Amino acid sequence: MKKTLFLTVATSIITPLLVCGITLTNWYYNLTLPLYKDALAAISDTNVPKFYLPPSRCSTYAVTVSHLLGTGEYAYADAWDVDEAGPNKSIWEGTAQSISELEHLLLANNNELQIGDMIGIYDPNSNFNLPGRGYTHIAYYFGDGIVFQQYGPLILKSDLDDFLSEIDGEIKEVIRAGKNTNQKNQIEKKEIIPGFYELNYGKLIAP
What we know:
By secondary structure, the chain is of the alpha+beta class. The chain has two domains: 1-30; 32-201, endopeptidase fold (from Nostoc punctiforme), CATH 3.90.1720. Helix content is 34%, strand content 25%. The strands form two sheets. The protein has a six-stranded antiparallel β-sheet with strand order 1-6-2-3-4-5. It has a two-stranded antiparallel ribbon with strand order 7-8. Residues 9-13 and 15-21 have low confidence and may be disordered.
């Protein structure tokens, strides 16, 4: 009887706190059901590197993914500074509402999207938006319109067009790792289970 009463009282206290915590997290990071579906897609796909990062470290996630997948060595920086850090190179800057529009704009400059490119995204919901910052979100381009990214506390595998539509965002820049550099990020990795990593950051390319 006492045990049942204790469980009832505990549940009545804990459940509202959990609901409140989840609600506040969703509100603060602008998390919606489609984004949670992208998170499940990332969890179930061993091609998507998963590792611990504090929330809102999108550029750290994207740069680390490029290192882990061997698609380029970028210097680490905040999302809005990645284009000017170390050997990183901006190959396009402007405004595009979709992948197809971006590809058209790149083609006009005799260029094209490549796996491993970083895509700078303006997110009107971002808590990091400040004057002078054209965008505050970075995603890793995996090809075929798919990006790997950290959004708030979640790691996502997203169709970029769907993601832009969900957050009412815009593509603002495409960044590529510098080719003429002998520098390499030194990151110790241990794959715990397929797709899930334990990392130890050592010497990194200077911004």
